[in-house]
Amino acid sequence: VCVHVGFDVNTFNANITILTINTLGLKANDIYYTPHSVRRALENTALKVDDVEVFAQGHGIIQIEKAYDYLSQNVAIKCHQLGFSIKISHLRGIYLRDPAYLSVPIDFSVSVEPVFAENTESNEKIALQIHLALTCNASWVQIPSHLELMNQSRQVTIRVDARGLQEGPHFTEVLGYDTTTPHAGPLFRIPVTVVIPSSVNAACEYRLVQKNVHFKPGEIRRHFIEVPQGATWAEISLTSKSEDTTCEFVVHTIQLQKQMAFRVHEFYRHLYLSEKASVADAFPVQEEKTIEICIARWWSSLRHATIDYAISFHGLKCNSDTLHIHASEGIARFDTTASLKYEELLPVVTLKTWVQTLRPVDSQTRPLGSRDILPRNRQFYELVLTYNFSQAKTGEVTPSCPLLSDLLYESEYDSQLWMLFDQNKKLVGSGDAYPDRYSLKLDKGDYVIRLQIRHEALSELEHLNDLPFHISSKLPAPLNLDVYRTHVNALRHKNTFCSLTLPPKYTIPFYITSLPDDKVPKGVEIGCQLTGTLTLSKTEMGRKADVHNVCYHLISPPVKTKEGSKEKSSKEKEEKEPSEVFEEALRDLKIQWLPKLDLHEELVSVYPKHLPVHTAHLSSLNSGKDRMTKLDEIARAADIVISHVDQNALMSHLAMKADPRPDAATIKSEMDQQKSALIDAVCLKGCALADMLLQSESQDQVISSKQVCQYESETDSIHRSLMDTFNDVQKWIELTDVKALTFAYKHALVKQTFGRALKFATLIVENKPSQENWNNCIQLMKTLGWDHCASSYENSLLVMYPPDYVPF
After folding, report:
1. Rounded to whole angstroms, how far apart are CA atoms 531 and 524?
2. Which of 150, 528, 557, 592 holds its CA 20 to 30 A away from the CA of 192?
């Protein structure tokens, strides 16, 4: 564990050193070198610093002059120009730290293989023969004394016997020397590290306590501890013993797990201590694994500090690390055990996010261009997957590719870059691995995600053509699942779980019930899931550190039928004949096909008073491509719809506080349909009348005096009808209502109140942003003389409505 600052600076200094040796020394004096020989020179001539642990200083301080002399003196030794590949089961060294590997001697098979330069001839490779002497200064490491190495990999066995070593870290190296030139230092090194952890048990209450510990600025205290079986979290507390000193400490812990990055089980925190004060924190742990705990005084502190600190382990173990709860099961049971000592138990299940699974709607693979060609002309390919999803309302989302999102440098694939666009192809955000870093706040609307994955083998990309993608949306408010002590209580939904103190080694079950249907977020579909956490401890520290993941699998929502419509349908089934039901179904089907087939006259002749026939006809006329040529027809069709609505009966119904009639729900549904049809008809009629006037104003034609009188008479009539319609609309809805906005905008244009028109045009853009609606706003700004605003929005349109997606 490293708590120092300046790693990037040290790397930069090392690079500058290597560059200096290469350019100023070796190349200037025509001294042959390889990357392997330069590295070996730096390692073998580095200066060890006393009182600094090997884990902090590595080989030591770089000495440029000595490294240059080393390269000059050993340039003639051919084996010093070679590299050596050391492999120990795909590892770079021997590292033992978990208790399971420390109780018996362990043999490691080490592969040593020479690495030649790319242009080395075959004769030189065949002639290679190196007599190696192997040495190690640790008695607990056993190795053969010699190794004969040719131009192929050779195996050597190293035995590590950690029995008898004291607690703490132990480091040594197996060095390989050329027997003909031992003075030149080792050709290769095999690092061996063994960590003997200390143990805590019930006798010390699973606590490690240190009193009156003095810290200098930058000083580090390390503890390697074997985590007890059953432990799930640890707590660390620091107490200041210094007066008039505010202390800043760093607590850094790491546990290693095979095939997982160290950050998965890492904890890093800055703790601040006032004089004579205490501070505490908690972190999760993995049982029966060695944990490294570092406590360090911050490097920029000015004075020494004295503190007491204690590390204690706790355990409330659930029989499943990740809880999968299926809504269809109704009740899910899980067991928990107090593994170490008395613990206060209070299970809480909280669901925080809604995960939506997407499938690609399009996939494309292609070879990349010349800028992505790797050395030796290795061609790279890309797979671009396209996903569509809708955001029901404004909220925060986190896109992620679950197959690859937790991998970066260790990933088999070269990239996993995604870009999120709105429906106008505007880039909203992008991201890579580690999805928690790329949360986006999205407005309501439709979105497109494009995911790029790259690899040099086309076949590796083709089997990802149907790769799922996740959209995690934060719930407006967390949802809690009820937890019960017994199965009977869970069935009866009575007496939820209360806290209790659990004795050591005692196991108790708890039961979790499904989420009520009315609490399930709207819009969820089969395949979606809710995710959250389970905490078991009642204490604040335990709830913070000991957290289990919860995945709640949703099912399709129940089919709900309104009570009134249910009664109506049941009565209709009893009263109507099958032939009548068939005729109504055929009528409804023909109404659906009205926009595509000319069935209006046929339907009107058979069903002259059926309101949906007339509303469907009006809708088909208004949505047609030739709408501007049928404005008169649209106005007449709207009048027909208006005439079929009893407005007095509708107003009487809306004025009622409560309807005591038994079929009140059915009546309310019918009245709502009539109100919606009436409002749509009045607004569409108003739009048609306004378009007539706007169209007549734009026409530039020569007419006779007689035609002028007739034209003015018709225009006056349309104006009066438009004003009547304007007043009728306001009887039912506000002009700022979504249904009335278009009519209000066009009415303002007719009246040439352009400021009011801009107000309604802006509201239209807010409800339905599109390039056409923005152009209407810009045109009104120009009419008002607001050229600066119009110019600004015209430039913004290029960003809001790009011609194509941003390339990767």
Report:
1. 13
2. 150
Work out the burial of residue 533: count CB atoms within 10 Å of its CB; fewer than 13 is exposed, 13-18 middle, 19 or more buried: middle
Which tens digit of pLDDT belongs to each residue from 152-211? 999 999 999 999 899 999 999 999 999 999 999 999 999 999 999 999 999 999 999 999
- Residue 94 token pair: 């021997």
Same domain, 310 and 323: no
3-state secondary structure 382-404: EEEEEEEEEECCCEEEEEECCCC
Longest pairwise C-alpha distance within the chain: 122
Q: Tell me: do 380 and 492 sit in the same domain.
A: no
> Looking up tokens 């944990």, which residue turns up?
291
Same domain for 604 and 638, yes or no, is: yes
Per the structure, how many domains does the chain have?
5
Three-class SS state of 690? helix
What's phi and psi for 160, nearest 5 deg?
Answer: -115, 120
The CATH number of residue 322's host domain is 2.60.40.10
**Structure tokens of 572?**
């209709």
H helix intervals, 166-316: none
Of 76, 92, 127, which residue sits at a domain end? 76
Are 615 and 484 contained in the same domain? no
Residue 258 belongs to a domain with what CATH number?
2.60.120.380
The token pair at 89 is 């089961």
Residue 615 sits in the same domain as residue 674? yes
Q: pTM of the full predicted structure?
A: 0.80
Query: In this predicted model, what pLDDT tens digit does every residue of 673-710 receive, in sequence order?
Result: 888 888 888 898 888 888 888 887 665 444 444 454 55
Cα–Cα dist 184/198, whole Å: 40
CA atoms within 13 Å, Cβ hemisphere of 364: 9
pLDDT in tens, 787-804: 999 999 998 888 888 989
In a domain, 739, yes or no: no
- Residue 118 belongs to some domain of the structure: no
Buried b (16+ CB within 10 A) or exposed e, 63-96: bbeebbebbeebbeeebbbbbbebebeeeeebbb
Neighbour tally for 216: CB within 10 Å:
10
How many residues make up the chain in this entry?
Answer: 808
CA dihedral sign of residues 369, 370, 373, 377: positive
CATH number at residue 655: 1.25.40.710
Apex 221 CA angle, 220 and 225, nearest 5: 140
Based on the fold, state whether residues 398 and 494 are members of the same structural domain. no
Positive or negative, the Cα torsion across 495, 496, 499, 504?
positive
**Residues in contact with 624: Cβ distance below 8 Å, sequence separation at least 6, in sequence order:** 595, 630
The Cα–Cα gap between 232 and 320 comes to 12
Last residue of a domain, one of 696, 723, 746: 696
| Residue 271 phi, psi dihedral angles, 5° rounding | -120, 135
Residue 755: what are its φ and ψ, rounded to 5°?
Answer: -65, -45
- Residue 141, beta-bridge partner list: 160
Q: Would you say residue 631 lies in a domain?
A: yes
Arithmetic mean of pLDDT over the chain: 87
Residues 549 and 576 in one domain: no
Q: How far is CA 96 from CA 158, 162, 168, 534, 636, in A?
A: 13, 9, 12, 34, 89
Tokens of 676: 């919606």
Question: Which 8-state DSSP code applies to residue 337?
Answer: E
Domain containing 634 equals 563-696
525 & 599 share domain: no
Q: Do 195 and 96 contact (CB within 8 A), yes or no?
A: yes
In a domain, 690, yes or no: yes
